[in-house]
């Protein structure tokens, strides 16, 4: 993991392997299960079966998933009047992209902060360093993907990333970025394809 993180910060190429995001996410959840239980967080999974594989660095992608889950848990640390629930979902798009989202039931974030959240050293936490989301964004962009945040219609926020199918990693399909806002809209309304 240390070598791979050094490679990320050194802008070196990583060795890509075929990764099943469902399996990668399950491993992270297993790793965090006791910590989430201590924080009284209940995690729900909604994984699409037969999710297409992606080409990428498994450890780096798991670092992103871990960061999103921990951020979601932290966002609910002050909640005492309702259940602390995290929902992690996966799916795929016709634009040959796989997505993963983490939704929490916390207090969310102000509308004008959606882009600032990914800036280095910007944090909304009392003890946060402001590098987790910045590093996560760098990792996802190095996988030819995008990471974004949305305020939920009710409570909390959803963080989502999308990356190309394994066959699209080296040669990105034209117009892939143009289709991402449509994915954002579907994620926001809860409709998946």
What does this entry look like structurally?
By secondary structure, the protein is an alpha+beta fold. It has one domain: Histidine kinase-like ATPase, C-terminal domain (Heat Shock Protein 90). It is built from five helices and seven strands, in the order αβαββαββαββα. The protein has a five-stranded mixed beta sheet with strand order 2-4-5-7-6, with helices on both faces. A two-stranded antiparallel sheet has the order 1-3. The chain is globular, with a radius of gyration of 16 Å. The C terminus is likely disordered.
Note the main attributes of this structure.
alpha+beta; 36% helix; Heat Shock Protein 90; 193 residues; five-stranded mixed β-sheet; 7 strands; two-stranded antiparallel ribbon
Could you give me the name of the CATH homologous superfamily?
Histidine kinase-like ATPase, C-terminal domain
| Sheet with most strands | 5 strands, mixed
Broad structural category: alpha+beta
Radius of gyration: 16 Å
What do we call the CATH topology? Heat Shock Protein 90
What is this entry, summarized?
This protein is an alpha+beta fold and 193 residues long. Helix content is 36%, strand content 22%.
């Amino acid at each position: 993991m240390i070598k791979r993180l050094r490679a990320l910060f050194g802008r070196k190429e990583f060795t890509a392997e075929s990764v099943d995001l469902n399996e990668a996410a399950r491993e992270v959840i297993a790793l965090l299960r006791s910590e989430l239980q201590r924080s009284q967080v209940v995690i729900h999974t909604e994984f699409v079966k037969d999710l297409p594989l992606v080409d990428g660095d498994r450890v780096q992608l798991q670092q992103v998933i871990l960061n999103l889950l921990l951020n979601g848990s932290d966002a609910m640390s002050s909640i005492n009047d309702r259940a602390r629930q995290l929902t992690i979902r996966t799916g795929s798009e016709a634009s040959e992209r796989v997505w993963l989202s983490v939704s929490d039931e916390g207090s969310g974030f102000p509308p004008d902060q959606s882009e600032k959240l990914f800036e280095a050293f910007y944090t909304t936490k009392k003890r946060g360093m402001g590098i987790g989301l910045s590093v996560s964004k760098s990792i996802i962009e190095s996988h030819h993907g995008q990471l974004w945040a949305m305020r939920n219609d009710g409570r909390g926020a959803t963080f989502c990333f999308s990356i190309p199918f394994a066959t699209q990693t080296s040669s990105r399909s034209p117009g892939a970025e143009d289709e991402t806002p449509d994915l954002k809209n579907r994620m926001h309304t809860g409709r998946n394809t």
